[in-house]
Amino acid sequence: MSVLLSKILSSLIHPLNLAIYGWLMAGVLRLIGWRTLATVGAVLSTLWLMFWSIPFTAEPILGAWEQKQAPTLAELATPADVIVVLGGGVKGAAPPVRPRPDLGDASDRVWAGARLWHAGKAPLILVSGGKLPWNGQTHSEADGMLALLLDLGVPRDAIRLESGSQTTFENAQRTQPILAELETQSALLVTSAFHMQRSLATYQKQMPEIDWAPFATDIQIVPRQPSLLQYLPSVATLISSQQ
Q1: What is the reported pTM?
Q2: Of 39, 149, 153, 217, which residue is the least packed, with the fewest Cβ within 10 Å?
Q3: Which helix (DSSP H) or strand (DSSP E) does residue 240 occupy?
């Protein structure tokens, strides 16, 4: 299966996408005369979208998932041989339209990697992320993360790049020979909190000989004061549920 096809299939379960497909199916059912079933489908699709858009219903679930690997400060993290930072927060450059990398919502993955390095938790940072041509990228995420790490004061000789992966599985697959060459026995895995469970399981399965310590960042859901806004649909909450 191609990477693009896998991305398309995985997007089918996202709340907004699923709701849109539900409405489209309801429209088809109505056209062929199944009006009752069409109405039920449209209502269920709307309720599904609202559930994942309203902070009161969605955030407890999203927050609990993020906290499965409790975040901590860089100073308190477990020392390791290498810091592995996964792509997904930095878009590669696409000159001349985008001459420099673009920092996305999850770019604090790279910031977290730099904080860990400055805290002396590992002597090396390995960044992993390729380019997604269908997003217009002509430079890899790893190149973008390299530029940001240099701006954050990490020296070039402390950074290793893996710039061919396009999925979490490929992140693990392509970083394995690099980590083996470095004779890595322990590693800090840095990615978004919502992404950590899947990433950690993938890396532990791919490289069980390495002691993996998760370092979650990019926390989206935090406790908020009770207010009427908790019961109203929120674009920010829906975006968090789309991860």
Answers
A1: 0.85
A2: 153
A3: helix 235-241
